[in-house]
Specification:
The complex is a heterooctamer, with two copies of chain A (about 270 residues), two copies of chain C (about 190 residues), two copies of chain E (about 80 residues) and two copies of chain G (about 375 residues). By secondary structure, chain E is α+β, with helices and mostly antiparallel strands. Chain E has helices at about 20, 55-60; strands at about 5-10, 30, 40-45, 65-70. Chain G has two domains: about 5-235, Thiamin diphosphate (ThDP)-binding fold, Pyr/PP domains (Rossmann fold, 3-Layer(aba) Sandwich), CATH 3.40.50.970; about 240-360, 3-Layer(aba) Sandwich (Rossmann fold), CATH 3.40.50. Chain G has 13 helices and 16 strands. Chain G has helices at about 10-20, 35-45, 55-70, 80-85, 85-95, 120-125, 145-160, 170-175, 215-235, 255-270, 285-295, 310-320, 335-350, and strands at about 5, 25, 50, 75, 100-105, 135-140, 165-170, 175-180, 205, 240, 250, 275-280, 280-285, 300-305, 325-330, 360. Classes of the chains: A alpha/beta (about 270), C alpha/beta (about 190), E alpha+beta (about 80), G alpha/beta (about 375). The complex binds thiamine diphosphate (2 copies), iron/sulfur cluster (6 copies) and magnesium ion (MG) (2 copies). One thiamine diphosphate sits at the interface of chains A and H.
Amino acid sequence: MNILLEHETPATDLDQMEIVYQRPDALTDLATHYCPGCSHGVIHHLIAEVIDELGIRSHTIGVAPVGCAVFAYKYFNLDSCEAAHGRAPAMATGIKRVLPDHIVFTYQGDGDLASIGGNEILHAALRGERITVIFVNNAVYGMTGGQMAPTTLAGMKTTSSPAGRNPLTQGYPLHLTEMLATMPGVAYAVRRSMHSVAETRKTKKAIRHAFTAQQQGLGLSIVEILAACPTNWHVEPADALDYIRDRMLPEYPVGDFKVSEGLGDRRLGD
Amino acid sequence: MNILLEHETPATDLDQMEIVYQRPDALTDLATHYCPGCSHGVIHHLIAEVIDELGIRSHTIGVAPVGCAVFAYKYFNLDSCEAAHGRAPAMATGIKRVLPDHIVFTYQGDGDLASIGGNEILHAALRGERITVIFVNNAVYGMTGGQMAPTTLAGMKTTSSPAGRNPLTQGYPLHLTEMLATMPGVAYAVRRSMHSVAETRKTKKAIRHAFTAQQQGLGLSIVEILAACPTNWHVEPADALDYIRDRMLPEYPVGDFKVSEGLGDRRLGD
Amino acid sequence: METSIIISGFGGQGALFAGQLLAYAAMESGKEVTWIPSYGPEMRGGTAHCTVVIGDEPVGSPLVRNPDCVVAMNLPSVDKYEPLLKTQGRLIYDSTLVRRSLRRTDIAGVAIPAHDIATRCGSQRLVNVAMLGALLTLCPLVDLAAVEQALHTHLPARHAALLRPNIVALHAGAAYVKALAETQITARG
Amino acid sequence: METSIIISGFGGQGALFAGQLLAYAAMESGKEVTWIPSYGPEMRGGTAHCTVVIGDEPVGSPLVRNPDCVVAMNLPSVDKYEPLLKTQGRLIYDSTLVRRSLRRTDIAGVAIPAHDIATRCGSQRLVNVAMLGALLTLCPLVDLAAVEQALHTHLPARHAALLRPNIVALHAGAAYVKALAETQITARG
Amino acid sequence: MAKGTVTIQTDRCKGCGLCIQACPQHVLAFTEEFNARGYRPVQLDERAHACTGCGVCAVVCPDVVFTVYRQPARRAA
Amino acid sequence: MAKGTVTIQTDRCKGCGLCIQACPQHVLAFTEEFNARGYRPVQLDERAHACTGCGVCAVVCPDVVFTVYRQPARRAA
Amino acid sequence: MTRELWKGNEALAEAAIRAGVDAFFGYPITPQTELLEYMARRMPELGRTFLQAESEIAAINMVYGAACTGVRAMTSSSSPGISLMQEGFSYIAGSEAPCVVVDIMRGGPGLGNIQPGQADYFQITRSAGHGDFHPLVLAPATVQEAVDLAYISFDLAFRYRTLVLLAGDGALGQMMEPVEMPPMRTPDATQPDWALTGAKGRPPRTITSLYLDADELASVNARLQEKLKTIAAAEQRWECFMTDDADLLVVAFGTVARIAKSAVRAARAAGVRAGLFRPISLWPYPAPVLDGLVDQVQGVLVAEMNAGQMLEDVRAIVRGRTPIRFLGRTGGVIPMPDEITNELTHMTRVNHRTNGAGMKRDVE
Amino acid sequence: MTRELWKGNEALAEAAIRAGVDAFFGYPITPQTELLEYMARRMPELGRTFLQAESEIAAINMVYGAACTGVRAMTSSSSPGISLMQEGFSYIAGSEAPCVVVDIMRGGPGLGNIQPGQADYFQITRSAGHGDFHPLVLAPATVQEAVDLAYISFDLAFRYRTLVLLAGDGALGQMMEPVEMPPMRTPDATQPDWALTGAKGRPPRTITSLYLDADELASVNARLQEKLKTIAAAEQRWECFMTDDADLLVVAFGTVARIAKSAVRAARAAGVRAGLFRPISLWPYPAPVLDGLVDQVQGVLVAEMNAGQMLEDVRAIVRGRTPIRFLGRTGGVIPMPDEITNELTHMTRVNHRTNGAGMKRDVE
Ligand SMILES: Cc1ncc(C[n+]2csc(CCOP(=O)(O)OP(=O)(O)O)c2C)c(N)n1
Ligand SMILES: Cc1ncc(C[n+]2csc(CCOP(=O)(O)OP(=O)(O)O)c2C)c(N)n1
Ligand code: SF4
Ligand code: SF4
Ligand code: SF4
Ligand code: SF4
Ligand code: SF4
Ligand code: SF4
Ligand SMILES: [Mg+2]
Ligand SMILES: [Mg+2]
């Protein structure tokens, strides 16, 4: 067995061709620490593409969570910082309030956002902070090794619900995005999924709408994304996508729970 | 001017009469520290009557908040404790989980429950803790002298929103009870008001239902009560009741947001 | 030399404001001064008091255990502070509200019908300033003129109409004590 | 005397379990022992290793800077630990995955075709135990029988079918080293 | 004879007036005197006999100062 | 000539196989070799010419290893 | 300059405003609330940022966020709220965001009460959260000093990229005293070269406290420790009052120190040569000065509104060279000048070590 | 008894279970998580209470609530989570609820990393929140000792109505070592006379930390301080290793102490008469024993996985009588035995005071 060269180059003559997909500017050139098949990498990619497309990289500030995406600040090629566990919306509030013309987004897992950080997102939403929240729901605590999250499915076995989550004692799966959508301060609240190419493309669009909502000063925008954690689900990456489709979607249907009018008029067409 | 005697006794011969209202057993004989006309006193009274009527005093445990009702543990004639600011639902969870056959209730203000304690109530509700939450919404931080609460009305002047609450920067009034009602773990979630005798009587009924829901193990029960804080509203006690009716009710309509079926069948008739 | 004054009454009687007036007047008179309220859980009602310490050097403790002077606007205040006053301390109390006589013989107690004086000046709410006038006549810590000045500067704008009545009450309180002194100041209240 | 062993490989190659087997075997043989994993942010993939320290007295540090023995299941592990090994230390590595030769001359390096041995015993996943067998032949810290016993007791129930193949691989690894020794043990890998 | 009456723990009354406003029979009024806590408490006024013992005052009073009495219902005989 | 093609940064590939499964033309496959991080990376297989440059692989790859090329659209002339 | 009567809490707020604070995030708590309320009024008038946070945890993390952009951000609270900020403090220390926090201490532990206290000494000078760091802690004794220290607090915070904690107590926060306010500063527009302002025309910047590699984190810590050393050397502040010829030394800070001043004067009047050593910076503790004084005196009296926290620092400095006596008051009780004077007189009478009752005690 | 190989975190959990813990509330955090996961499996099997809380704040307040009913309640976390529990600790101290908390420390400040650390020393021994109190802090050095201390932790918590903190580090939590597990205890059914169990046939009980009246809170504090004195007198724990004839003394706790033991052996082998003083109780610190050893030695080496926290305690005890040298490691770096041995050899060579680089330094 041999170590491969850095790049595997195809036979075809590349000079004749146009580049149609390449690493976005808004990503640094670092390899990620994510497990094989982890959705975090894809979601980073989508966000970076949106930032490039909107041309906002140089006045965007990212706030990384505590969770597997803790190093997001290394992977995004823009100014960013690392919040305490669950406090990204508060940190983003602090930033946005003093830099109202900048674009500020948080990137948070379900443990970070929906468990320990429940109050910070609730109140950021209540206040209608003009920030964008990318909420990566993989139904477990990835980083700490697969414990139950508030979004863990009923019956799902995790290292802290070894008999399967019993909603009667451990709670029902939390539909945070729907709840946030009820608040006037929220401009855009949708759920998307990573289980197929088509859905991934829709996720990207939603991310673009979310940033646009912020650009328009409409309020808080949140995109919940059903994401794969093959490692802690103990399945192969490809099967993890099916798991999203077959297990997560029934509990967490994708959908637009709130699309503020200002945004809807101009943007939802595409 | 003279100091009056402790009791003003009427001329009528009391021996001939039946007592129809008297201090409930579940209240101690202490005078409260509340301001004149403060709803906290009335609500204490209602809870105590319900506890007496249900005959649960000797296995009920109360959890007092940080807020004007911080001394609730002195006024209720039952085992009780004093939680850290906002953490009453967590403390009550700890108690109920080890004493599942006891009745556990928290008594919390809007600052305590809806501001600093938002995450604790969210997750207690999610888990469907079999506890009862009495949520006294007076739209301000009473104890600390009238600062803005998450439930403060739009435009309302407080010491920390001296220009009147501006929803665009300080948030829209929070409808927490409605949000909690969306969770399967919540068995009973209603809003009541203290602005009239009739409404006060309905409040008492709701409190009874809430305790009954707990007795039946149906999930978390919460009664939000629109309450007067004449002091920080800077109005006379009687006008404070009108303020509830005219100002608070339009934003916070009374209503049953969730009445679990088990409870509805048996109880809502009365 | 430091002189400490406690002004005490029911919440809403204006004890804290009277203390602030005194503190402003002292500062404008070039003295060192501190003012500190009692602050408790009760928002309205209950007993409220403040402590003012006036001195020539920077004030040490803004709080005192044994005050030099007490202005007591109700009975609980007399009950509380009579035992705490320094020997030879001054206790001014509202004889309209406090009907009992003082117990200590080693203090100078002065009963003034502050309620009546205030009512005569136009409002029950002037009790605090009337008593302040009385205090400053008994213990000339600052000139009444300095208090008048403080009233001019610090009476909240929404109470502008009460400025004159306040000044009248201040002097009425003072006049009452002066008249009393001219007859006799007893060591018993 | 303490002997420290680092077992290192890609995540999923079973380095940690091999270390635990060694620790169990040491304990059952009446030795003092510690086992400690490296734990990092990567859940899968990346390099995982554990350190086992075996001694006659209670073990001091469960972590070591310069180990006595290293079992390297991939190239990055060789890269990382070759420089750190104690002088005269033992480095056992999988020659199937590691094609380069060792650089140090003051250590004893043994290349074993663990991948091939494992495959022959029935599964690629037996590499870890094959290499453990090799290690224990090179440095007889505990009897192979003790490891066998540990496998009996600690192989997770869901892998019961792998018990025999594991034991076979253990001995196959040992046999390879023994055969090598009978010919020659070089000080260079 | 009055249909009902109340006793009032006046030392506890904070003079908020809620009972006065709520009493359907308008039989409650403030005293002229202050109690030890500096409030003017409530008393039955000269129309005390009109009290029905309805208990409304007890329901609205934040300081739980009322005990309410009622004439026992006469058996129809 | 192929309609499109891809370059693959194989040292970054973690062998998750998502691209292989997603590629509509089924032109991707694992190599036999391992990369420095211990994964078997992906390569264009012998049917590489069938690649359309659709970019699906780039969309699904968590490790952003693909650069996708496409034949410029010919002007209808 | 004109003297005005200012309430401690409001004076602190106004001084911070004049020092150029750009953003305030806070949560009400007695006896600090007037500071927040003052900010709620004034900051919007000046076009600056005021936001009432949902909790102290949110407040400190908002401050953290704002500070990352290079603006002057602050919060204020009182003891229980300061406990809740400990994780935030630790992140701020780890990522070297310059922030100012006011702590108007009250009685503890737990909910305790709202009276003055000094029992946060440990949690602000020692740990202030997990990991190795110390905020720069300044403890004013008068409203004027509170103003003066608040006025320089952002300079210190930015000079060292550190957390500056202004530590007062309920008495300082609630009292009014004559103050000369410093002039309004025109905010400095230059942005620090670490601030997150958008990666326009420059490489991106990141602010983090995460260093997974042990050696890397160790070297970050080494740098932080170096910085602390620099601060320790440069930022000691103290006052010596009548110490020149003192036989007995009172050591006290904040409100207790101003009370002790009266006590020292009274003791002098009674023929006892007492002096006062007042640390103004609680961290760094002005140890060398105290160390120098110790050899000269026959005894040290430590007075605090706690059960003996700064006492530990004093003991470590005194190193057994002279007897230490401790006068502690807890629960919001303020020691009175005569109590301190009595202790001093007591100390002149006994030159052997005795044990006082309750929280008066001879320490060594 | 049989020896089994146990991972530190799981051994702590099992020992608590055998000691009769009734309820566990916790939140995952590396390097402590296995403790929580073990509880998640075992507690329900035994019909006891396990609940994953939404945060460390909720966890400690659930523990607080459960403890108020008189049951044995515990939680566990690591440094950032311990910071978040400071307010809860203070309430627990103020209301004297007996609780057990495990802290498996990691590198800080801030998010730091997940490697072993000892930099919570200050925040668990000193403040642990606002107000005057100290938890009883026990620091095991081996998995066996972790088990033994966990086994008695509830006895201590209930005897004194105090918070007991078991302080380990990532190495202790993650390592496996042979252990003899103590037998399962049959839980004691008698309910304490302060527990909230429902006011049936007795006057109601209340548990609070609020005492608005200053004098009342002062007297509560006086009682708490008396209790702390009792604990300080009765609960000091330590180990002396080869100290009898030692010329040089290493002072270290937890993981560093076990490493120091190897170093002491090595130093002895090299002819240096070294010994180890290992505090097991970090609060109360076993000061008298150390005090006694100081006069006998020519120097003290303090070794810690922090920038010098216990060092302050040692300095206060040594009081300048002998030179102190400090070896500190931060960021998750563990000092190796030979580094400690080197320091010891260095100390024998120089009997004057020098300043080492970085975090090696001569303190006095
Ligand atoms: C205060 C605090 N508590 C706990 C942790 C440990 N911790 C790190 S990440 C994490 C959960 C992450 O889960 P999630 O937010 O779902 O992100 P994922 O890893 O699944 O992407 C936890 C509990 C911490 N670092 N800080
Ligand atoms: C951690 C903490 N933060 C803040 C406070 C101060 N505080 C006491 S009560 C209160 C708000 C109370 O408001 P609410 O819950 O609405 O009750 P109300 O007094 O209106 O009944 C606050 C902020 C505290 N005691 N502890
Ligand atoms: S543990 Fe799960 S969420 Fe974390 S990197 Fe691995 S796959 Fe992704
Ligand atoms: S401040 Fe308001 S809530 Fe508090 S006691 Fe007074 S009236 Fe009631
Ligand atoms: S019982 Fe009814 S009628 Fe009688 S005083 Fe009360 S409210 Fe009035
Ligand atoms: S309602 Fe109660 S407190 Fe208010 S005035 Fe009537 S009797 Fe007094
Ligand atoms: S560009 Fe399309 S066809 Fe070509 S490899 Fe990628 S997915 Fe397959
Ligand atoms: S999707 Fe990316 S990482 Fe996964 S196998 Fe394909 S190229 Fe490799
Ligand atoms: Mg997750
Ligand atoms: Mg309120």
